[in-house]
Structure formats: structure tokens, C-alpha cells
Design a protein that fits this description.
The protein has 328 residues and is of the alpha/beta class. It contains 12 helices and 13 strands. It is globular.
């Protein structure tokens, strides 16, 4: 397994990502995943709003954007999987290269830009899944959408995925879609939140809706959003998305390295956001993500108030063994 991971690091990031996931899917089709990556259901389960998470560890959005690998990822033992971010219309994302690895620092910088095959493709994939665990869908807006059209994009995705999603995450915090983070401003997020609330009421969607937050906003802005989350009867927050702040990242030769930073250098910032959310409302449901790569960092998220934890970068670097490492 270590040899395979080392080999994949020699390839361009997006190519290695595709090869790794397709190989996992190949092993799944041959019924070999259980043999190679034995999993004995470590961890405690959690019940929330009628959903049963068999354990508290999940895959964050971004790893499987289009729902192509739900079953093989589920077979690795994750308690839940979040797919997306998905947009109404398929889009190619930003120009390449757009993913940069820093293995020695356990970090990745990406400026993918919501590359995905569109919500209709994702829905068809979800319909075919065998995975019986909790499945969340992360929704966003197309790059060219602005103003009311951007709100309409979220509503379109929401209405199309809710017949099949165990929960929905509203992504207002990606740094790689122009002006998306302006949805953290009250005059922008209030119309979106109201539209989502009304759509939820009309369709009688009782499963959770989570808001994914940026770690780069100040405490005052976050407090206003958290108040609105409660006002519009959403069910919790995900803390956090990637950061544009790279002061904790050591790099050279790429001085214009734009995009979102994930992995170890995000750990402190994401924890700080989790602390703010927990202090604002200890009862609010929180999913912690950012820099989790060990049992210690996993447990710390829970100690700081998270009910669930997600991984992304550590799964890319450590592979399927991360599940057993965090939950054993």
C-alpha cells in the first residue's frame, strides 16, 4: 500500500486522484476491498434527526464530486459520505494546473472551481448506489451565475437532490468560485437562506441542512451567520472549508499560488472556527473538518464540540488505512 501511494505521488495530482479512486472501485467490483482493508466497525454510532451514522468519521465533499465512487468509499468503513460540490450545469472548473501537493507538510492547495458533471448526472449516480450509510450532497452555484441566478442555482440543486440525499450541505465558502464567499455578507446570505427555507417547507424536507463556513471570516461575521442558521431552522454547520491564508505553508517557486489550502496547516484555523461556533451555540450540530490526520486530531475535533468529523487531505496521503487509524 505504501508503494502504491508513493507511486501515485509521482503522477500529476488530478491524474493520481482519478487512478486511485478507479482502482478502489475496481477492487470493490471484485469484492476485494474487505480482504485488503479489513474493517470491524470501529467507533460509536450517532443518531441525528432520524439518521444513524454508524461511526463519526466521514469523507468530505470534493473527493467524489460526481457520485462515481460512493459504493467503494462506503465499503472502506466511513460512517457517512458527502459528495459534490455539484452545480446545476456541468462545468470544467478553472484552468490547469489547479492542484498542488505539499506531502512533507500534509497539505494540498486546490483551485478546482466546482468542476463537476452537473446535478442531473449526480442524481442518476445516487439512484444506483448500494451504500446503505448516510449520504450527504454538497450544493453550489455555477461560476457564471450572479445575483438572483446564483440563488436559483442553489434552489435547483436542492430540489433535485432532496429525494435522494440524507442531508444537504450549502457551500457558501469555496474560495475558488468568483465572489462566492460574498455569500458570507448578510445582504447576500439572507435571501439565499430564506429561499432555501421556503423550498424546504414547500417540499417538506425534514432531513438536515448544513451550512459550510469559511475559516477566513471574522468572529462577528460568523456570529451573524450562526444566528441566521438558527433563525431559518437549518440544522448545523460544517467547520470548515479551505483557507486562502497560506502563512503556515512553506513553498517556493509558486509565489502566486492562489486557491484553498487544506490539510495540516488548516488545522488551527478550522479548530478556531469550531470553537467560535460551539461557544455561540453549544447545542448546534457541528461537523468538524480540516487537518485531521491522527487519532489525536480526530478526538480534538470531538472535544471542541463537533458531533461528526470529516477527512479529505489525509485520505489522499494515507489512503484507506486512515479509517482504522482514526477509529480504532
Amino acid at each position: 500500500m505504501k508503494f502504491a501511494l508513493l507511486f501515485l505521488r509521482l503522477l500529476p495530482p488530478e491524474i493520481s486522484h482519478s487512478i486511485a479512486l478507479n482502482f478502489l472501485n475496481f477492487l470493490y467490483q471484485l469484492n476485494l476491498l474487505g480482504f485488503l482493508f479489513s474493517y470491524n466497525d470501529y467507533g460509536e454510532s450517532l443518531d441525528f434527526k432520524g439518521l444513524t451514522f454508524k461511526n463519526r468519521l466521514g469523507i468530505a465533499a470534493g473527493l467524489d464530486k460526481n457520485g462515481d465512487f460512493i459504493d467503494c468509499l462506503g465499503a472502506l468503513g466511513f460512517g457517512f459520505i458527502e459528495v459534490g460540490t455539484v452545480t446545476p450545469i456541468a462545468q470544467s472548473g478553472n484552468s490547469k494546473p489547479r492542484v498542488f501537493r505539499f506531502p512533507s507538510q500534509g497539505a494540498i492547495v486546490n483551485r478546482l472551481g466546482f468542476n463537476n458533471k452537473g446535478v442531473d448526472y449526480l442524481v442518476e449516480k445516487i439512484k444506483l448506489r448500494s451504500f446503505k450509510g448516510v449520504l450527504g450532497v454538497n450544493i453550489g452555484a455555477n461560476k457564471t451565475s450572479e445575483g438572483q441566478k446564483r440563488i436559483d442555482d442553489y434552489i435547483e440543486c436542492f430540489l433535485k437532490v432532496i429525494p435522494y440525499a440524507d442531508y444537504v450541505t450549502v457551500n457558501i465558502s469555496s474560495p475558488n468560485t468568483p465572489n462566492l464567499r460574498k455569500l458570507h455578507l448578510e445582504e447576500n446570505f439572507l435571501p439565499l437562506f430564506e429561499a432555501l427555507h421556503l423550498a424546504r417547507m414547500e417540499r417538506k424536507y425534514t432531513n438536515p441542512i448544513f451550512i459550510k463556513l469559511s475559516p477566513d471570516e471574522n468572529e462577528e461575521t460568523i456570529s451573524v451567520i450562526l444566528t441566521a442558521v438558527k433563525k431559518f431552522d437549518f440544522d448545523g454547520v460544517i467547520t470548515s472549508n479551505t483557507t486562502v491564508n497560506k502563512e503556515n505553508l512553506i513553498f517556493s517557486g509558486q509565489h502566486n499560488l492562489s486557491g484553498g489550502l487544506s490539510g495540516k496547516p488548516l488545522y488551527a484555523k478550522s479548530n478556531n472556527l469550531l470553537k467560535i461556533a460551539h461557544a455561540h451555540d453549544p447545542q448546534m450540530f457541528k461537523i468538524g473538518v480540516g487537518g485531521v490526520d491522527s487519532k489525536e486530531t480526530f478526538d480534538m475535533k470531538l472535544d471542541l464540540g463537533a458531533s461528526l468529523v470529516q477527512v479529505y487531505t489525509s485520505f489522499i496521503y494515507q489512503g484507506p488505512s486512515i479509517v482504522k487509524k482514526l477509529l480504532k
